[in-house]
Design goal:
The protein is α+β, with helices and mostly antiparallel strands and 403 residues long. The protein contains 13 helices and 13 strands. The chain has helices at 14-22, 75-82, 105-110, 128-135, 144-147, 154-158, 179-189, 240-250, 271-281, 284-301, 329-340, 365-373, 385-401; strands spanning 35-46, 49-60, 90-95, 98-99, 166-167, 192-196, 204-205, 208-209, 216-220, 233-237, 314-315, 321-324, 374-377. The strands form four sheets. Strands 2-1-3-4 form a four-stranded antiparallel β-sheet, with helices on one face. A four-stranded mixed β-sheet has the order 5-6-9-10, with helices on both faces. The longest helix is centred in the last third of the chain and has 18 residues, at 284-301. It is elongated.
């Protein structure tokens, strides 16, 4: 074990090292004066074969510890367990008193544990921390060819720091986000996921409804959404403790009147709004089916523009039917309105990183292109067949004319 920049054992004087090591008995599982890692009853099996079974082990702080044994003895597997690259089937492993299961490899590395690879001998220009990232699960650089071009995957780590509390995916326009990839990154970094499902009532991915992936999810009930209560929203949550906190925050931090437990808000929904929302819940499925039917007709008949794609296993509920117009989106929208009396929407024309409160000096060309090309067409359930045909005729004519 070594610090990413300094060998911790070298920081001790010869006398200090002699004093520490002279007090340690050469016996399995012996207690150490100042252990940084403590392992208890951990096991790891593969295909029914036990690779690691350790009753108790303490690793001394400020020492270089070697795992020595023949091939197949489980050294690498055990090292993976004590550096956060793998999780045991049972037992505990603690780093400075904290469960390693809640830490990811590059965090472990900052405490002094560094994994080395045969592979990285060919990649000596990478930093120690990059070597750790290279081997971490769910990292974009975990393959040899990707490792040769580290600039393609370092940015994933750069976006996540010790200040990062969670990830908030947005199920934009009614299409579920890539929750499998997002959850993998969250799991690798010990982060929570909070879903923005404001536009995605009834959407799902792989048979699992949005709102059931994260710690909690928020659905909007604003009048323009797929269902409404007139105003307000709702939260889906499976954890009883989180649910209680949500209830406290919406009611000025109180469960019992005048006994404020936390600093909360006045976000209570009125009974009238709740009654509207409860009735709308019985109707939203039929409205969604009509939206999907309308979207299918548009996607089958539009030409010269890019219809909204649907990912494999995803159920899109089409809060918006958003196309991509490759040239002069604004002119295209104006022509739809002025020549054909068809309304359209340009949502989020200014990317978040360009907004004053969140201004970040980065170049995001795909984000900029999407903001310049996206245009939402009518898809609501009240459209008639004649309305749909008129939309198709107008869009195809303008696309063909290069409007």
């Amino acid at each position: 074990m070594s610090d990413p920049t300094v060998d911790p054992a070298a920081a001790l004087s010869a006398a200090q090292r002699a004093h520490i090591f002279s007090s340690i008995q050469p016996a399995p599982g012996v207690a150490k004066p100042d252990p940084i890692i403590v392992v208890d009853d951990i096991t790891r099996t593969f295909g029914g074969l036990t690779a690691v079974a350790v009753d108790h082990l303490e690793i001394q702080r400020g020492a270089i510890t070697g795992l020595i044994g023949p091939n197949g003895a489980g050294k690498t597997t055990f090292f993976n367990l004590i550096t956060g690259f793998d999780r045991p089937d049972s037992g505990t492993c603690r780093l400075d008193g904290k469960p390693l299961g809640r830490m990811v490899p590059h965090q472990v590395a900052r405490h002094g544990m560094v994994r080395t690879f045969q592979l990285t001998k060919a990649l000596s220009k990478l930093t120690v921390l990059d070597n750790v990232r290279l081997g971490a699960r769910h990292q974009l650089g975990e393959h040899f060819l990707a490792a040769l071009a580290p600039w393609t995957w370092r940015k994933q780590e750069a976006a996540i720091t010790e200040r990062t509390a969670g990830i908030m995916p947005v199920h934009l326009y009614g299409h579920p986000a890539k929750m499998d990839r997002i959850q993998a990154v969250a799991d690798a970094h010990g982060l929570q996921v909070f879903e923005d499902a404001a536009q995605a009532h009834g959407a799902s991915l792989g048979g699992r409804p949005v709102g059931s992936f994260g710690t909690f999810a928020m659905f909007s009930l604003y009048p323009t959404k797929n269902m409404t209560s007139g105003e307000g929203g709702m939260v889906s949550v499976a954890n009883a403790e989180v649910e209680r906190l949500v209830r406290l925050y919406r009611n000025q931090g109180m469960e019992k009147q005048y006994h404020n437990e936390v600093v909360g808000f006045n976000c209570r929904m009125t009974d009238i709004h709740a009654a509207i929302g409860r009735v709308q819940l019985t109707k939203v499925d039929a409205w969604t089916a009509k939206r999907q039917e309308n979207a299918a007709f548009l996607s089958a008949n539009l030409r010269g523009v890019t219809p909204p794609p649907v990912a494999p296993g995803a159920v899109h509920v089409y809060h918006q039917y958003t196309i991509r117009v490759p040239q002069d989106r604004d002119g295209f929208a104006a022509a739809l309105r002025e020549q054909y009396a068809i309304g359209s929407g340009m949502f989020y024309p200014v990317p978040n990183h360009k907004l004053a409160p969140f201004s970040v000096d980065v170049e995001l060309p795909e984000t900029a292109r999407a903001a310049a090309e996206c245009l939402s067409l009518p898809v609501h359930p009240s459209l008639s067949q004649g309305d749909l045909e008129r939309i198709v005729e107008a869009v195809n004519a303008l696309a063909a004319a290069g409007a």
